[in-house]
Amino acid sequence: LAKTTQPISMDSYEGQEVNITCSHNNIATNDYITWYQQFPSQGPRFIIQGYKTKVTNEVASLFIPADRKSSTLSLPRVSLSDTAVYYCLVGGWNQGGKLIFGQGTELSVKP
Amino acid sequence: EAQVTQNPRYLITVTGKKLTVTCSQNMNHEYMSWYRQDPGLGLRQIYYSMNVEVTDKGDVPEGYKVSRKEKRNFPLILESPSPNQTSLYFCASSFAGGLSSYNEQFFGPGTRLTVL
Fold first, then answer.
1. Is some CB atom of chain B closer than 8 A to the CB atom of A43?
2. Which of A105, A59, A62 is nearest to A83 (CA)?
3. A18, A67, A105, B81: which has the fewest Cβ within 10 Å?
4. B113 at the A interface (CB within 8 A)?
């Protein structure tokens, strides 16, 4: 199972673009990369998922280089409400259902 | 409304007193999973189930039991709780797609358990 490494915390200001990178050196061929967002006292919520290159939705973009050993979650023009913990998850059903979340990155957005 | 529900949301108990935390989903998901969350350790998987009557150990299964008799329910059982099981617990569910895919998990609101 691919182990992930993320920065423990990051600070930003409102209106800035935030990039959070996740390292996953032993990612398997069939693994997908998924990011979740978690607010205090709530369950994590799905943000975005990708396999390779770039994926964009209404909330974020996900950049995955060709070797897939890392990925970067990009949040454009963050606001105070983006203050949360962001988790990178690498895996897929080919692993039989066992999933390992990273420790998460605590993003603090200041006014 | 599509959701994952957990009960109770808060529980304070004493060492050794058996307890069950229930989890139910109304999305007809095959996959269900339990996680515990502790400060500085992120989310750690306890047990998971790919379908009815199929369960398997996650990363930290010691001290826990689960069962999957119906598709919608996946209770977490602590036969003899200990203080080191004090934690925030999340249940999650998902469709279990093809072997080369992964489907987003929907998480419940969490159960905060304190074992004295």
1. yes
2. A105
3. A67
4. no
pLDDT attached to residue B32 = 95
Q: How far is B14 from chain A (nearest CA, A)?
A: 23
Identity of the residue in B102, B105, B110 whose CB atom sits nearest the CB atom of A32: B102
Tell me what pLDDT residue B9 has.
Answer: 97
Nearest CA in chain A to B88: A41
Does the CB of B74 have a partner CB in chain A at under 8 Å? no
Q: pLDDT digits over B24-62, tens only?
A: 999 999 999 999 999 888 899 999 999 999 999 998 999
Q: Has residue B98 got a pLDDT over 70?
A: no
Q: What are phi and psi of B9, to 5 degrees?
A: -85, -30
Q: What is the C-alpha to C-alpha distance for residues B5 and B73, in angstroms, rounded to an integer?
A: 10
